Amino acid sequence: MVQKAKILLVDDRPENLLALEAILSALDQTLVRASSGEEALKALLTDDFAVILLDVQMPGMDGFETAAHIKRRERTRDIPIIFLTAINHGPHHTFRGYAAGAVDYISKPFDPWVLRAKVSVFVELYMKNVQLREQASLLRLQLEGGGHQPEAPSGDEGEPPGLLAELSARLAAVEEQAEALSKQLGDSADSAAVATAAHLERKLTGLRRALDALEPGAGGGGSSAQVPSQN
């Protein structure tokens, strides 16, 4: 079953949330509403989100203050934030949005197709990271449980070849998808998305090296291979 990404929509006006849901419904992901900055921070305590669409002008805690809280939390600081605002106060206002940690700053009314395309990029990057974490988890379990595995065929002291082949095939699929995404972003002006994709590729490289070290004849021995950090 394919896991769906969660997208957090933050706006104090119900009609704006309804409009965002209509625009993003075609992505077939899980859309979560929050009508205030406080409600958004509460949702972020328990759920993981691929991207946050955050209205700037809200009563009480505005978008800038909400973003500052999000970026201070270790759990949520890396979640991409797209600011949405009905009023364009010029370059200074836009700069404040980027300084608060936003990856993009869009003025209303905006092109629905453009917004959906931007959100889809971050959803795809998020899904690739989820797959990468799953592969790393499988590899870590294999390394930690090496002493409890059935005996390998005579003459082999490494990991069971069937599981290694499965892990390698799964990782290869993620690598192929990540490469295609990087090519898609090659000419993109969205530097945050490009940087995130590059970070994903670096993690994939580290995981591939760890997996290769487990292959029979690699020389390092399966028990000494290190699984790269997924932070």
TrEMBL record:
Record flagged with keyword Phosphoprotein: yes
4-aspartylphosphate: residues carrying this PTM: D55
InterPro entries recorded: Bact_response_regulator, CheY-like_superfamily, Sig_transdc_resp-reg_receiver
Pfam families the UniProt entry points to: Response_reg
GO annotation terms (biological process): phosphorelay signal transduction system
Phosphoprotein is among the record's keywords: yes
Record-annotated Response regulatory domain positions: 6-123
Keywords, alphabetical: Phosphoprotein
Domain of life: Bacteria
Signal peptide range: none
Record-linked PANTHER family: RESPONSE REGULATORY DOMAIN-CONTAINING PROTEIN, STRESS RESPONSE REGULATOR PROTEIN 1
UniProt name for this protein: Response regulator
Organism, scientific name: Streptomyces daliensis
Lineage, highest ranks first: Bacteria, Bacillati, Actinomycetota, Actinomycetes, Kitasatosporales
